[in-house]
Amino acid sequence: MVQTSVGNEQHKRLHPHKFTLWVAMASMIMMFAGLTSAFIVKSSLTGWRTIELPRVFWVSTAFILVSSITIQMAVKAFKGREMQRYRTLMGVTFVLGVAFVVCQIMGFSELWNQNVRFKGSSGAGQFFYAIAGLHALHVIGGMVALLIMVVRSLAGKTKLYSAVPVEVMSIYWHFVDLLWLYLLIFFIIVG
Q1: Which of 101, 75, 73, 87 is nearest to 152 (CA)?
Q2: Which region holds residue 52: left if phi is over 0, alpha if psi is between -120 and 50, else beta?
Q3: Is residue 34 classed as helix, strand or coil in its secondary structure?
């Protein structure tokens, strides 16, 4: 009876890695909230130029939304110890992440060709590149972690079936997905 109670108590606690991730995500939310708030304040200045988002950003959005589904399916496969399915789904998630980044690069290139630059008379380009660039860094960081997890799973390095690393990766990936949706909607509304 005592053993079961202790086991249940430990199961209810938030794993330290998850707690650390939640704290990190809270700080990222504050950073992006501050940047988007500054964007709103600065957009009322004379000479501000609105940004027309390239259509390729919608394609990138589809890629990152689908990748959230595949990583969640990977978590389920890992917990069910379906390792081949887990490897495949993590690989697909990584490829979708690459597709997202490629579409983002195409979108930035299109904006550059429309003369939306980091330097110039309007601060819109500066804010847009800073905000979207910081998001891109978070996505690339997530892709590095995904790649490490895929390589480890292919190398047979998954001997302990602790789902915590997979869950942490999934939470983070969902976070960058939701963050992109927020930024996309923000730039559509505020411009």
Answers
A1: 87
A2: beta
A3: helix
d(CA 100, CA 95): 9
Each residue's pLDDT tens digit, 45-54: 766 667 778 8
The residue among 26, 50, 34 whose CA lies nearest residue 175 is: 26
**How many structural domains comprise the chain?**
1
**CATH number for the domain that contains residue 77:** 1.20.120.80
pLDDT, tens only, 109-127:
888 888 776 666 466 777 7
Gyration radius (Cα) of the chain, Å: 20
d(C-alpha 174, C-alpha 72), whole Å = 9
Range of the domain at 30: 15-190
- Give the number of C-alpha atoms closer than 13 A to the C-alpha of residue 38, restricted to the C-beta side: 13
